């Protein structure tokens, strides 16, 4: 990491300004620590509380007010592009400076309580952050699966459509099919219908029996039951079909129709927009770089949200897809613990454990069915960055072989899209945690940036 650039020191650096990061920053700052919250977005809120200036959703308002009151410093429109542990105690007791944490772990080193260095790049240029503790709250992204036609214009992510709506895009008059899995399908279909889109069908791949059992169990969670009912009863949300999934999308210049399977039969539906997404996957790049242990595709944490790396805590979707309530509770626990005051988070621990139980039921209900592995044909693109088709891959390969032979996952998105897909299809892990984490200027990386 480059020397000679602006350095900001803090007790706790929180990476990610969604519900988990906001709660972590609040807890640590209210405990009297110097806190810096960094987020790529233009304002705190993350995915669920993404909003335009002055239009924060009701649930976010008290947390955002508390964040602004607590004294935490904010860096928005700023990405953490590299991480480094400043000092590492190796087995010999020798201290080593300036190696990437992942290298240190590979060499058997263990991070000490010395500062962790982060390289941030934002509108104000590059900045080095030295933090006594780091809370990773980097959230999740959508899980896409390849099927014929999924790269046609007019095929978008369910969350992508939601983000477009929140930024003011109108889908009024468009005929929309939503096909994929998970609870996100419902609020997005309701939001699209509210703004004048015509919902043709909401196709949920999970079997009707499982979805029914899940819905029946919601009486234990009255708030969530009301929420689900509100989305389902919203005017114009179209038929919801469980046990139904997309087979292919067709169109000349853009999507014109999709085939979905409904109760074993194929139905062709004309549409202008297909929103697809098969749940969420945690964002793990920074955790990988720091050398945090992973379990079941998420960061492994203990009761206090501590990761396997000293000085690094993790909260929210990066520890496993758990929803907003789990993110808030985990964030508060992580922030209080990183500040050295875990007792402040006692009530949040109970809320977290409850939210985690709910998250496990969600995961079991919306587990992906094996039939989805057969959607793509030989010609279906799987890696858009490197233009790799499914037919170029051999299931008997390892992920490393696939990368070497085809360059899959080695383009600009660094396997963020195809990585989860090939993990589901072939069990490969393509994502490696390479720096810079996102696109960064050479100046930021060398410390010679001139951002005027
Ligand atoms: C596309 C999408 C749409 C969703 N919509 C809904 C919904 O409508 N309803 C619902 O209940 N749940 C929704 N969810 C789930 C919801 O996001 C989570 O339950 C909740 O927001 C998790 O909070 P979090 O703080 O863990 O993560 P997030 O809210 O995802 O926040 C993570 C933050 O980390 C930041 N970040 C990541 N990497 C870096 C980096 N290197 N440098 C700086 N900042 C970084 C991101 O910019 C982001 O703001 C959605 C999830 C996704 C991915």
Strands, helices and their partners?
Layout: E1 7-15, H1 19-30, E2 35-38, H2 61-69, E3 73-75, E4 78-89, E5 95-99, H3 101-106, E6 110-111, E7 116-122, E8 125-136, E9 140-142, E10 155-157, H4 158-166, E11 175-181, H5 185-194, E12 198-204, H6 208-216, H7 222-233, E13 240-242, E14 244-250, E15 257-262, E16 265-270, E17 273-278, E18 280-282, H8 285-290, E19 294-295, E20 298-299, E21 312-314, H9 324-338, H10 346-365, E22 381-383, E23 388-389, H11 399-406, H12 418-426, H13 442-446
Parallel strand pairs: 1-2, 1-8, 2-3, 8-21, 10-17, 11-12, 11-17, 12-13
Antiparallel strand pairs: 4-5, 4-6, 4-7, 7-8, 9-18, 14-15, 15-16, 19-20, 22-23
Bound molecules: flavin-adenine dinucleotide.
Flavin-adenine dinucleotide is lined by residues 15-21, 38-41, 46-48, 79-80, 137-142, 159, 162, 184, 187, 280, 283, 286, 316-317, 323-324, 327, 437.
Low-confidence stretches: 87-112
| Main β sheet profile | 9 strands, mixed
The share of residues in helices is 25-40%
> Count the strands?
23
Q: How many helices in DSSP terms?
A: 13
**Rg on CA atoms, Å:** 22 Å
Termini separation (Å)?
21 Å
Structural class: alpha/beta
Strand content: 25-35%
Indicate the mean pLDDT: 89
Bound ligands, each once: flavin-adenine dinucleotide
Overall, the morphology is globular
Short structural description:
The chain has 452 residues and is an alpha/beta fold.
């Amino acid at each position: 990491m480059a020397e000679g650039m602006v350095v900001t020191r803090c007790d706790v650096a929180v990476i990610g300004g969604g519900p988990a990061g906001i709660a972590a920053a609040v807890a640590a700052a209210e405990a009297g620590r110097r806190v810096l919250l960094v987020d790529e977005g233009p304002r705190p809120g993350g995915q669920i509380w993404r909003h335009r200036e002055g239009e924060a959703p009701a649930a976010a308002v008290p947390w955002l007010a508390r964040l602004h009151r607590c004294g935490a410093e904010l860096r928005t429109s700023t990405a953490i592009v590299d991480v480094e542990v400043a000092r590492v105690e190796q087995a010999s007791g020798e201290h080593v400076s300036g190696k990437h944490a992942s290298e240190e772990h590979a060499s058997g080193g263990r991070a000490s309580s010395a500062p962790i260095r982060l390289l941030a790049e934002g509108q104000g240029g590059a900045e080095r952050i030295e933090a006594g503790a780091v809370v990773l709250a980097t959230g999740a992204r959508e899980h896409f699966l390849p099927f014929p036609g999924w790269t046609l214009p007019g095929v978008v992510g369910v969350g992508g459509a939601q983000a477009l709506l929140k930024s003011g895009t109108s889908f009024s008059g468009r005929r929309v099919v939503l096909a994929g899995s998970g609870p996100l399908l419902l609020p997005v279909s309701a939001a699209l219908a509210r703004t004048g889109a015509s919902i043709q069908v909401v196709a949920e791949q999970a079997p009707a029996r499982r979805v029914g059992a899940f819905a029946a169990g919601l009486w234990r969670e009255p708030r969530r039951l009301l929420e689900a009912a509100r989305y389902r009863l919203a005017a114009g949300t179209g038929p919801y079909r469980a046990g139904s999934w997309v087979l292919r999308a067709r169109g000349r210049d853009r999507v014109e129709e999709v085939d979905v399977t409904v109760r074993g039969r194929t139905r062709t539906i004309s549409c202008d927009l297909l929103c697809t997404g098969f749940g969420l996957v945690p964002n793990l790049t920074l955790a990988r770089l720091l050398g945090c242990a992973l379990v079941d595709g998420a960061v492994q944490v203990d009761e206090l949200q501590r990761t396997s790396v000293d000085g690094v805590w993790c909260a929210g979707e990066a520890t496993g897809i758990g929803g907003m309530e789990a993110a808030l509770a985990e964030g508060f626990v992580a922030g209080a613990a990183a500040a050295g005051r875990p007792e402040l988070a006692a009530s949040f621990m109970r809320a977290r454990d409850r939210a985690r139980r709910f998250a496990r039921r969600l995961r079991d209900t919306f587990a992906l069915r094996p039939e989805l592995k057969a959607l793509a044909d030989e010609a279906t693109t799987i890696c858009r960055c490197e233009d790799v088709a499914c037919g170029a891959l051999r299931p008997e390969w390892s992920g490393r072989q696939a990368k070497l032979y085809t360059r899959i996952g080695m383009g600009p998105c660094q396997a963020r899209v195809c990585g989860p897909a090939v993990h589901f299809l072939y069990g490969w892990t393509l994502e490696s945690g390479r720096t810079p984490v996102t696109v960064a200027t050479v100046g930021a990386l060398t410390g010679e940036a001139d951002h005027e």
